[in-house]
Structures are given as C-alpha cells and as structure tokens.
C-alpha cells in the first residue's frame, strides 16, 4: 500500500510539474529582429506621418483572468515612470494605435508580466503602414510570462480577437 501511495504521488507530481513547462507553439515564422509591415496590410487613412499598429491577444487559458497593458519602453525593456499605457490586452482582446514614424520599442506590463530587455519588441514604423503584434506565452519554470511578437493580418483574423476602438 505504501508503494502505491508513493508511486501515485510521484505520478501526480510529474503530471503537475510538466504543466509548468507548457508553451504555446511559436508563430508560423520566426519573428524578425524588427517587425515588418504585414504584406496584406490595409493602407486605410492614417494621420500624416503615422503608422497603425494592431496589438492583439488570442484567447487562451494561461493568464486568462488578467488584463495586460502595452507600453513604450527603453532599451532595458522597462517603461519610464511617466510612460503612458498605450492600451489594454484582455484575454481575447485587441486595440489599434497610431504611432509616429520611426523606431519604437514596446513591452507588456501587468500581473506575471516580467519586463526583460529580451522581451521588448523593437520595430520601425513607416507612415501609412499597418502592423500586427501578438502577445504570446513565454516558457518558464514557475510562470512562463508573456511577450510581444510580430504577426500578420491573417494571424490576427484567425485569432478572432475583439478589436477595441482605435486609440490616437
């Protein structure tokens, strides 16, 4: 009986331990160091000198109860104290943001969001272009964490996320 309890406990520990290493499959293509405009991107009316970025978060179980926030960050991957929140990413949500042309870096803040320099997404925004950025899950021992990666319009459409009204 004692061996059965020990074996059952070991099996349960192993089963629960492997869940901590769960990770979503990576996007179809490895992200480039800088996000590129989506090939089928709409060149809908954008304010002069600005590009449009759609940040989205597909619905998934890890971190489902939390809402994360996108902020512009420095080279260390952390937002400045006075850095405004650009928008919210609830589970299954999305928002659009008009960004000035030039190089920008973005990261996520919120519960279980560990802002590491390597998690920041650095991208060059060109006027009149539309970009898609997806929040994905990063593997970790106790908590995986989250990061932003370049995506395309097809991946955004397939995610069935609900787009909030655009922010300026």
Give structural notes:
By secondary structure, the protein is an alpha+beta fold. The protein has one domain (2-163). The chain has two helices and nine strands. A five-stranded mixed sheet has the order 8-7-1-4-9. Strands 3-2-5-6 form a four-stranded antiparallel sheet, with no helix packed on it. It is globular.
Biggest sheet strand line-up: 8-7-1-4-9
Q: What does the radius of gyration come to? A: 19 Å
| End-to-end C-alpha gap | 66 Å
What general form does the structure show? globular
What order do the helices and strands follow?
Answer: HEEEEEEEEHE
**Integer count of domains:** 1
As residue ranges, the low-confidence spans are 10-33, 35-43
Strand content: 25-35%
- Which structural class do you get from the secondary structure elements? alpha+beta
Report mean pLDDT, rounded to a whole number: 74
Q: Tell how many strands the DSSP assignment holds.
A: 9
Helix content: 10-25%
Continuous helix count: 2
Largest sheet: 5 strands, mixed
């Amino acid at each position: 009986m004692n061996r059965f309890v020990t074996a059952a406990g070991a099996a349960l520990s192993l089963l629960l331990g492997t869940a901590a290493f769960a990770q979503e499959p990576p996007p179809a293509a490895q992200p480039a160091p800088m996000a590129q405009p989506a090939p089928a991107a709409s060149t809908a009316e954008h304010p002069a000198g600005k590009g449009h970025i759609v940040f989205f978060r597909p619905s998934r179980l890890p971190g489902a109860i939390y809402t994360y926030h996108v902020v512009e960050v420095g080279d260390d991957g952390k937002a400045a104290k006075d850095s405004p929140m650009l928008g919210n990413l609830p589970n299954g949500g999305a928002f659009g943001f008009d960004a000035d042309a030039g190089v920008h870096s973005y990261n996520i803040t919120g519960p279980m969001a560990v802002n590491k320099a390597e998690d920041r997404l650095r991208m060059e925004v060109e006027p009149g272009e539309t970009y898609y950025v997806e929040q994905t899950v990063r593997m970790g021992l106790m908590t995986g964490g989250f990061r932003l990666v370049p995506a395309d319009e097809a991946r955004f459409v397939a995610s069935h996320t609900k787009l909030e009204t655009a922010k300026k």
